[in-house]
Amino acid sequence: MVVSGGGTGIGRATARALADGGSQVLILGRRLDVLERTAAEIGAETESGRVSFLRADVTSPTDVDAVAEYVESTYGTIDAVVNNAGGGGVPPGSGLGGLADAWRSTYDVNVISAVLLTTALGPMLRRPGGRIVLVSSMASRSGGGGGAYVAAKGALNAWVLALTTEYAPQGITANVVVPGYTPDTELFGSGMPQALHDRIVSRIALGRAGRAADIASVIGFLVSPEAAFVTSQVIEVAGGSLPPNI
What we know:
Elements: E1 2-4, H1 9-20, E2 25-29, H2 32-45, E3 51-55, H3 61-74, E4 80-83, H4 95-121, E5 131-135, H5 139-142, H6 147-167, E6 173-179, H7 194-202, H8 212-222, E7 234-237
């Protein structure tokens, strides 16, 4: 199984869960030192060699081509591709040109990365039985996080319909996981101010913030044989978002 953005946060938790279940996992990311450390740590927690790594910027067609060549020569067939790579929007520069650059950058990181990796590895997915998972965000539901980020994550929620049309006849499922507030990820940096954290948690029905492991467990189900009849779904893993007070 291949997990992009696999060095930290939700990607790391997903790799850990899949390895713990006995899968061979290839994690991708831009920072070689982070990938090395994560693979070693998960190997110590599960079984040495269960997780391997490859440095790649999945917004780069050249890097993704190299990933595809490596996967084909090393594994031949894979069970799943988990598109977890992504990130928040960058502040726009001056004028419309700066705004356009910021939106394109955010779209590249969150959408084009998934399009490139899924397209490159699609021919290697098991038929039948392959799995495609996209990791979106509750920002696509709430509108928080900035317009570019909201739009990019919303694009993943819509793209899954086209993926289903393309891959379902081949016995391959495609689904989107929509994480809610998950502060143990790099997206939130050093963390929210306590007052803001408390306010966000107060609008979560289950009364706590999410954890990367919560998201990973749902991804683990979606790539399992038990999820063979689940496709084209946009699944919130957010603890139940309560509507704002009116």
